[in-house]
Amino acid sequence: MTDDLVIDVRGLTKRFGGRTVVDAVDLGVARGRICGFLGPNGSGKTTTLRMICGLLIPDAGEGTVLGQDLKTRRSAIKARVGYMTQKFGLFSDLTIAENLEFFARVHGLPRRRERVAEALEKLGLATRSDQLAGKLSGGWKQRLALAACVLHDPEILLLDEPTAGVDPQARREFWDQIHGLAADGMTVLVSTHYMDEAERCHEIAYIAYGRMLARGSIAEVVAGSGLKALQGEGHLPDGTGADRLAAAIEARPGVAMAAPFGTALHVCGPDMAALHEAVAPWADTIHFREASPSLEDVFIHLMRGAEDNSVVVHQ
Amino acid sequence: MSATPLQRIGAMVFKEVRQMLRDRGTVGMMLVMPLMQLMIFGYAINNDPRGLPMAIERGDNSVFARSIDAALRNTTYFKVTELVETPGAGDELLQNGKVQFVVTIPADFGRDLVRGRRPQLLVTADATDPAATGPALSAIGDAVGTALGHDLIGPLAARAAGQSPVELVLHRSYNPEGITSHNVVPGLLAIVLSMTMVMLTALSVTREVEQGTMENLLATPLRPFEVMVGKIVPYLGIGVVQLTVILLAARFLFQVPFAGPLPLLLGSTLLFMITSLGLGFTLSTLAQSQLQAMQMSFFYILPSVLLSGFAFPYRGMPVWAQTLAEVLPTTHFIRLVRGVMLKGWGLIDALPEMGVLAGMLVVLGILAVRRYQDTVA
């Protein structure tokens, strides 16, 4: 990690009504890094992104974005950050080219026409530039939205669930593009629900119920969870797969969770010896081998832990 | 078991009622609209207006003049608000809209009456709104007849018999023929502009919020003030087109007189348009959806049409309705348009109403900028 943190916020807190949506979140992201921002629905991801790009003023906390104070220099930050909203936010009654031209004008970009033409070319939309943006399919809308928010060459790109509802091929192309931008020095903070996308990030931050629960590279987060896993495969005497045992095994002591994957069963818990003991009754027919816990295991585990905490807090 | 048509319709009805009750704007419309209309049509609007402000210009102090004065004060049609003695003072009051009628009792009125010379009694009416003046004029004749009937007794009784002892001269100012369109067309300018300006702006901002484009706008370096001005300018263009169409129609289709200076009318119209746009913008910051924005504009436009003096005489309304009308920019603009076009107002005459509009603009501007944040929540 370098000292060049382009996003550097501490204790970021936001309340809506009496509810604390984001609770003392610290986040530092270095230049050129792609940071995956994960967490369950309603965990405060969007609110955090909005605070970072100056769309919301935090109730508490401080920090800098691109060296500018988060609270007092919001306009300066807005000019150098690209933010792609969760919902398609371009003008559906303007054409593709008109949308891009609008953002080029707002940012006062020199050589506007060329910039827009280049962007259209890069998008592969040059021939369809007169089509209304609202008529585009989901995948194209997403590509256009990305093109619009990187048009002014922002130093930071904030993406709020950019690939929701987009097909796998378009998602892959999207991520290739993100990596290309990061290689050129753009810093990316991207929220997502997809584990495969999380694995494409340099580092991840996991937030649940407004609190940052895990931070680091994927290996660090998995190791930090202290979670162990067993993978069970084989058939029960009645011919059904190991997956049928999920409920029975999850009820055993020492098991945090047991999830079926096809006919296989994935069992996690904090202690390997306890896991082996938990699955012992079925060990004669099902073969259990030690596996590494997945990111998903870790997140579900973290989320359940956080839920427990919140219950305690309320009592 | 499949559902019967009745069950399926029941499911729809259930859903609709739930949604309707959750939508406060619609519930408000359903309950408040009829109440508002009941109040306005039932109490505020009066086609036979009473208590119209009148000035008496009395050049004569005879017993007859005084009893005409008293008789006019006694009718419910008029409220004598001014008593002046300098000639011409009454016309000035009429010009700036302080009174609607001026009754001029000329010098030597009493003496001429006694001598049987049939003195003239001049009634000048502000006929910019012919509907408001009609019934009142006949009331003046009655009042004068009754007053003199009491006084012309004894040796003067002969004066009361036969032909009326005074000659009632009626002068309908600003609209001598009492043509309704002379009143309606200038008023229509105010109504058309308030409808389009307020509604278009209110809708345009909420549309951005509803479609999710506002978040994108706010994430750019655009400032609230810039968004506001950027949105308002095109609507000003629309307003100018509407103004041109109505003025051309007034001139060539309806032959409405244009007594005052055109630049003054253009200036006041610009002021009114910006005020209306500011109002629309303020409404849009209060509304959560386009539907609500539409409903709010409706709550503004309905009283604007009914109370501003456009459709019904302002003077005929009770005080509460007049007070309400004073709060509406349309009321003041209607006075300005009619003043400039029909009465030939100059800048000095127009200043008070323009001042009110400017004041409203300042208040609305502050409100709109304060409500419109460059953050999303």
Automatic annotation (TrEMBL), chain A:
Residue ranges of domain ABC transporter in the record: 7-234
Superkingdom: Bacteria
Keywords: ATP-binding, Nucleotide-binding
InterPro entries membership: AAA+_ATPase, ABC_transporter-like_ATP-bd, ABC_transporter-like_CS, P-loop_NTPase
UniProt-listed SUPFAM superfamilies: P-loop containing nucleoside triphosphate hydrolases (SSF52540)
A molecular-function term among this protein's GO annotations: ATP hydrolysis activity
Record-given protein name: ABC transporter ATP-binding protein
Originating species: Novosphingobium sediminis
UniProtKB/TrEMBL annotation, chain B:
Recorded family membership: Belongs to the ABC-2 integral membrane protein family.
Keywords annotated in UniProt: Cell membrane, Membrane, Transferase, Transmembrane, Transmembrane helix, Transport
Protein name: Mannose-1-phosphate guanyltransferase
Domain named ABC transmembrane type-2: residues: 146-372
Transmembrane segments: 25-45, 184-205, 232-254, 266-286, 298-314, 350-369
GO cellular component, one term: plasma membrane
UniProt-listed InterPro entries: ABC-2_transporter_component (IPR051449), ABC2_TM (IPR013525), ABC2_TM_bact-type (IPR047817)
Membrane topology: Multi-pass membrane protein
Nuclease listed as a keyword: no
Keyword Transmembrane: yes
Subcellular location: Cell membrane
Gene Ontology terms for molecular function: ABC-type transporter activity; transferase activity
Pfam families: ABC2_membrane_3
